Amino acid sequence: MATVLEAPRPAISPARFSADEFLRMEELGLFRGRKVELSGGQIVEDELPGYDHGWLQARLAYLLTSAAGAGAQPVAELSVRISDDTVRDFDAGLVRGVERTARFALPGQVLLAVEISVTTLPTDLHVKAVEYAAGGIPTYWVVDAAASVTHVLTAPGPGGYAAR
To answer: What pLDDT tens digit does each residue of the chain (164 aa) get?
Structure first.
């Protein structure tokens, strides 16, 4: 009796999207009610923020509004198109030259990006730090809600931030 061998099936790789495709899907409402971002061409989803995150975000927005210098606009929950395959949403920050009707900012418009970490500390301190630094965002803060610590990262470069 002959044995029939099946040809090996090719591995299915994850779908990859460009920033333009992702932003168009967002514009069409495909992600309504979900917290999604694009990292290296892959759509990543996180849980929706809870009370702690919301309280800290409101407090930061207030403090940044009070401290913003000339030409700096305080923002909360803004997308930044970091590259052709990465779009992230930072929780609070300072920008310049972003129109009020803009759907997203470009890295050169972001003076400060702040992530509030209630459940996302490893991603915020490592993955997002490398992405924001590669985009040239000069200052990045990660607010660790559990430890009541703010990590301040500066001196961006292709491999991440040189100063913490």
So the answer is: 555 666 676 677 778 999 999 999 999 999 999 999 999 999 999 888 899 999 999 999 999 988 888 889 999 999 999 999 999 999 999 999 999 889 899 999 999 999 999 999 999 999 999 999 999 999 999 999 999 999 999 999 989 999 99
How far is Cα 55 from Cα 60, in angstroms, rounded to an integer? 9
Q: Please choose, from the candidates 57, 71, 37, 79, the residue with its C-alpha nearest in 3D space to the C-alpha of residue 141.
A: 57
Report the C-alpha dihedral over residues 107, 71, 154, 151, rounded to 10 degrees: -100
DSSP 66-87: HH--TT-EEEEEEEEEEETTEE
Asked whether the beta carbons of 28 and 43 are under 8 A apart, the reply is no
Residue 12: phi, psi to the nearest 5?
Answer: -90, 120
Phi and psi, residue 50, nearest 5°:
-105, -165
Asked if residues 105 and 98 have their Cβ atoms less than 8 Å apart, the reply is: yes
**Phi then psi dihedrals of residue 58, to 5 deg:** -65, -45
Predicted model pTM:
0.86
